[in-house]
Amino acid sequence: MLWLIGAAAIVVAAPAASAEPASTPYRWRNVKVGAGGFAPNLVFSHAEKGLAYLRTDMGGAYRWDDAARHWIPLQDGNAVGSYMGVESIAADPTNPEKVYLAAGMSYWGEAAIWRSADRGKSWDIVPVPFKMGGNEDGRGLGERLAIDPNQRSTLFFGSRHDGLWRSANSGRTWAKVESFPHPGLGAPEARRQTHAGVSFVVFDPASSTIFAGVADPTRAGVYRSDDGGQSWRTAEASAGPEMLPVKADLAHRTLYVAYATGIGPNGIAGGAVRALDLRHGTWRDITPDRGASAEGGYMGLSADRQRPGRVAVSSVDRWQAGDTIWVSDDDGRHWQSLQERSRRDISDAPWLAWGHEEAEFGHWTAGLAIDPFDSGTLAYTTGATVYRTREGTKPAGTMTWQPWIDGIEQTAVITLISPTAGAPLISGFGDLAGFVHDRLDVAPATMHLVPRLTNTNNLDYAGLKPDVVVRSGTLHAEQPQGGASLGYSEDGGRTWRALRVPALDVGHEPSRRYDLRGDAPIDVSADGATFIVGTPIAMVTHDRGRTWAAAKGLPLGARAIADKADRRLFYAIDFDGGRIYVSRDGGRSFAPAAAHGLPADISKARTRGREDPWPMVAVPGRAGALWFNLGGRLWRSEDHAGHFRLASGADIAIEGFGLGRGADGSDVPAVYAVGTRAGLRAIWRSLDGGTQWTRVNDDSHQWGLRFRTVSGDPRVFGRVYVATDGRGIIWGEPAEARRK
Predict the structure, then answer these.
(1) Given 439, 505, 628, 650, which residue has the most CB atoms within 10 angstroms?
(2) Of 708, 507, 702, 504, which Cα lies nearest the Cα of 607?
(3) 121 CB contacts (<8 Å, ≥6 apart)?
(4) What is d(CA 619, CA 604) in angstroms, rounded to the nearest whole number?
(5) CATH number for the domain harbouring residue 72
């Protein structure tokens, strides 16, 4: 069973092994989708034109390479899952080589300051005593990490739970600023709760003044120090009831502060924007939208370094009218909304239209930046992508934005299949439903849209007719609760039709549908004619859902999968009863399989949730051939679950596995697995049926060890697909393989 690394979990780097396991050099690349997840903020360097950094909430940090015109992931060699949630980024204001990351997924995970003197090519990682929340609510706040422009070895970090911290030696050691008025609220009361804490730290480069915002409701406000952080005082009167300072920027002796009634990314009902003239010490309310129908708050905020008085702010959670960016050229006295005069050119990521004629302006618009070297370049982040325009100073007419995403792949991938014909890969994503990947280097034209699902939790294809594909998942918010969470395709996933299972009577519960919650997997027979759905009572249809019948002989809760070569064969696991069942009549009826050789207790193979990969896999092209992961050991059957034999040894503990094309002349498939061997957690390959294993990833390709599932390609020897929790789909081939 493959570990599912959630937002609040952490995978610790494996201890060094006493002997280096065998390895096979692989070349690794991303399957191209184009961003896809929430990037809470982007940071332009003030030291060098064309240099920028992006932080994501679960996929690590990126650096924009202006010469190569693409984003470079900076944490792919990291083996600690928590560090892939980046809380803040600080780029040195005068030295373009130096950059710092505040990395930590949640209060319950490890946290560290990452220090680099070569733009993130290499890192010195300093674990810290304060907690972070790079993937918690409030991740769009900031920036919390700041460098003193007058003494660049001095850094401040505003923590969520533990107040304000200071380092005097470029982040090597940290001490709490005891004089800061808000010491922090400590641990949250429950695992899924958090605090906002110190929401931002901003320096005035013309003085020794520091501003820090606090977004905890009981102590909300902006605080000021005029002596380098030795003493602090309140910098402002209240911005209004329930208003929390969430983001700030300072330029030309003016401090701009964005406020919201919540920390986001959801749940913000109102907001404000204020400006402090440091020369006169006066505050002004410069809120763009003050109408009675104003919705949502403000979060993204950026002051123009080239044009005094020019400032931009983004709305957030303005669901009815849609989010926008407001720009002012006169210090907030007048504003212009850009949404109404903007168009999105999404040719690099056409799926961003989500089935509509035009892509939305964006939601969760937490990050916003004006290029400090070019007033016309604006960029903003959303819950699905990053947009940039070069026409930010265009006085009138349509303004064009394009996804600024080349190199960014930041998604949680739940499941994937590589069929024996058609597209090489079909995927199921969290939030984005998933895609047909006709080419691995080109963003898909569209996503799975019928039925409209938030997550796709399982996929299957017909072994002898791979154009027939089925999927199940979690209903999208726009989908009525009486709708469908199951679908089938007869053209390799390019078009879909919805399936609905009728209401069932289960035990003493009232009759209801069990296919609406996202936990009813669907599988298809080898010839594509039969679908079987894992509702509590397994249901079978032979006519594309027009009629359904209960599979006879199966206990409640047993899920069936199909043989990949014999249309009549299905196999099911009953964890509670400790039995494996087989159907030889197309899923109409099942009987217990002999399953000789297996341990009596098969409960260790039980999956933990609907997004976990299934522990039993049928071999493409070979009737009756099965592989079964039982408690970290692989078992094989060649006779329809009649007999099993142990395939993998005790030297490797397997979490999840997939099959691919075997080596030339071999009669066994290649097996790819996520597992631990000799103390090393990695991606492994076996070409001899599970006896010998070699590592195929390396220390530069670990992606936080946040793996969801893995599969080989049945058509291309050596090719493997890895679904990550935050870095999209990674695919690899042996380094010596012919480039295709």
Answers:
(1) 628
(2) 708
(3) none
(4) 22
(5) 2.130.10.10
The number of distinct structural domains making up the chain is 2
Instruction: Say which of 348, 431, 639, 688 is annotated catalytic.
Output: 431
Span 30-50, average pLDDT: 97
Separation CA 160–CA 180 (nearest Å): 14
pLDDT tens, 513-527?
999 988 999 999 999
Q: Which of 554, 654, 677, 678 is nearest to 604 (CA)?
A: 654
Same domain? 315 vs 389: yes
Catalytic residue among 57, 76, 289, 566, which?
A: 57
Same domain, 109 and 175: yes
Is residue 57 annotated as a catalytic residue, yes or no?
Answer: yes
- With a CB cutoff of 8 Å and minimum separation 6, the contacts of 507 are 556
Using CA atoms, how far apart are residues 3 and 14, in angstroms rounded to an integer? 15
Q: What is the pLDDT of residue 479?
A: 67
* CA pair distance 505, 556, nearest whole angstrom: 12
Out of 2-11, 330-339, 355-364, which region has the weakest mean confidence (pLDDT)?
2-11
Q: What is the C-alpha to C-alpha distance for residues 145 and 166, in angstroms, rounded to an integer?
A: 10
What torsion do the CA atoms of 733, 734, 738, 740 make, to the nearest 10 degrees? Answer: 10
Clarify whether residues 457 and 569 are in a common domain.
yes
d(CA 216, CA 30): 39
pTM for this one?
0.95
User: What residue type is 237 in one-letter code?
Assistant: A
What are the tokens at 324? 């926008």
Domain stops at, among 368, 403, 438: 403
Active-site residue 664, yes or no? no
Question: Which residue type is seen at 420?
Answer: T
For 270-293, write each residue's pLDDT tens digit. Answer: 999 999 999 999 999 999 998 767
Q: Is the dihedral of CA 573, 578, 582, 586 positive or negative?
A: negative
Confidence class for position 14, pLDDT limits 50, 70, 90: very low
Asked if 412 contacts 393 with a C-beta cutoff of 8 angstroms, the reply is no
Residue with tokens 């199940």: 472
Looking at 403, 425, 440, the residue that finishes a domain is 403
- Residue 224 CA to its chain's centroid (Å): 36
Contact indicator for 43, 91 with CB cutoff of 8 Å: yes
- The DSSP secondary-structure symbol of 481 reads T
Lookup: tokens for 15: 């201890």
CA distance 671 to 661: 9
Which pLDDT does position 19 carry in this prediction? Answer: 58
Q: How far is CA 375 from the centre of its chain?
A: 31
**Burial state string for 557-591 with b = 16 or more CB within 10 A and e = fewer than 16:** bbbbbbbbbbbbbbbbbbbeeebbbbbeebbbebe
d(CA 35, CA 386): 7
Which H helix or E strand runs over 413?
A: strand 413-417
Q: How far is CA 336 from CA 333, 341, 381, 633, 640, in A?
A: 10, 10, 19, 62, 68
